[in-house]
Every structure is written in structure tokens, then in C-alpha cells.
Amino acid sequence: MKTLAAWIVGALGALSLATGAHAQDCKPAHEFETMTPGVITHVLVSYMPYDALDNAGKAIGVDGDILNEIAKMECLQLKSTSVDASAALNYVVSGRADIASGSYYRTAARAKVLALSDPLYIDQMGMVSRAGYDSIPQIIGKKVGSVPGDLWIADLRRLDVDLKLYPALPELLQDMRLGRIDAALVGYSVTIMAKEKGQMDGLVAKVAKPDKRVAASVSPGQGSFPMSMGNPAMVEAINADIAVLKKNGFIAKTLEKYDLDVSAAKTGAPRLIQ
């Protein structure tokens, strides 16, 4: 027994030394400070397929996977906490978090108080229908649904469509299943979770083809990581890491992993929604 116990202790000690040596051997891609040395303090808004915490408290989803990979590149631990959507950005502005995620668009208003990372992906406009529509000409003259706040509402009002706004996606999809509307324009990403919840039975979701009459189909919102304006070294490092993950295909593969279209990785140059 003593021999076995000694062997176990020795093995654990060797493992501990090997782990410590590995940590010491890790060479970060960049040098920058964080709130807590060795840790990226991260707040997220649960919004799949982009962000959530798994049972072990690890960030998952498109944003979560990207940030975990960045933390690995920088030899840092990613410490993630799920917070309310109304509070997430205040954590960063007030210095209680290094970075936030939640499929945050790059907007001019946010850029006044936060450093927004370079774009990660685009939030593509989706078209839902029973017939499989994927272009604006196919819905002209038809009954079309959407939800308030979407980027394409103003442009739709200028087209020959019978537009109806719904308070939330489930009500919209229910009316479509009942045949009360012919099509819906929504963020393509929200259809992924709707499908998992059984709300898409008999319906088809497709990425809408670009059409100059609807600006959001040509220049969709770009997702980003909000950070503190007071830590330019971190912003520069994160942007450099994002560039690497775009080039090596990691972001495209992550989008595909969560059933999003890989073309969403083609963000174009950084831009702000006014």
C-alpha cells in the first residue's frame, strides 16, 4: 500500500510540474494588461448561438469560442460571467470587466464610450417563408412580418409590401405557420434557436440576397467585442488576434459549428451603424 501511495503522490507531483512548465513555456502573442493579471474578465449576455455559459461556467457560442481561442493565444484565463443585457456594457465602462460579448453591433453611439473591436462577423438578414424565398423581389406585393428595431424596417416601408410588425419572433412565426403572412425578415441567427424550440415547423429560413433597396442586406450590422477605451494595448492585441482567426479560418468554422452561414465571416472593412 505504501508503495502504491508513494507512486500516486510521485505521479501527481510530476503532472503538477509538467503543467507548471507548460504554463511557463506559453508565449503570449502580445503583451497587455488586464484588470486581474493572467485573467481576461469577461461579461456576456446569454444570446445563442452567440453567447452562453455551459454547466462548467465556460463561455460557449460563436463569441465564447472566439474569446476562448484568443485567451489561449495570449496565455490567459478567460473568466466569464453572464449578466443582464441592460448592465453588460456598464461593466466595461465602469472598469468591472475587460471585455463584453453578446453579438454587439459596431454603432456610432457605442463607439463614443467604448472601444469596439474590429468586426467578427456580420449579422445577416434572414428571410423566413413556407415557399423558401431568399430575395426582395419575391416578397414584393406580399404580406411581410418583422419585429421592431430591426435595421431594415425603414427600407421595407418604402417598398410595395404589406408590412406588419410583431412584438416578438414567436408571434410572428405563429402567424406565418397559420398562413396569415407570406414572409418574414429577421436576423438569420435568431432562426437557429427558433428551429431548436420547434417554432420553424413547415418554414424555411434563408440568408437574404443583397438588394440595394434594403441597405441592411448589403451592409449588415457587424458583431464586435466592446472593450475599455482606456486600454488601447488590449484593443490592439484583440484586433490582431481577430485578424489571425479570420485568416486561418477559425471564425468561419465556428460560425458553421453553430449552424450559421460561413459567408458571415466576410465582414468587409470596419464600419459603424449611425
UniProtKB/TrEMBL annotation:
Residues 1-23 form the signal peptide. Residues 43-262 form the Solute-binding protein family 3/N-terminal domain. Pfam families: SBP_bac_3. InterPro entries: Solute-binding_3/MltF_N. Keywords: Signal. Coiled coil: none annotated. PANTHER family: ARGININE-BINDING EXTRACELLULAR PROTEIN ARTP (PTHR35936:SF17), MEMBRANE-BOUND LYTIC MUREIN TRANSGLYCOSYLASE F (PTHR35936). This is Amino acid ABC transporter substrate-binding protein, PAAT family. It comes from Fulvimarina manganoxydans.
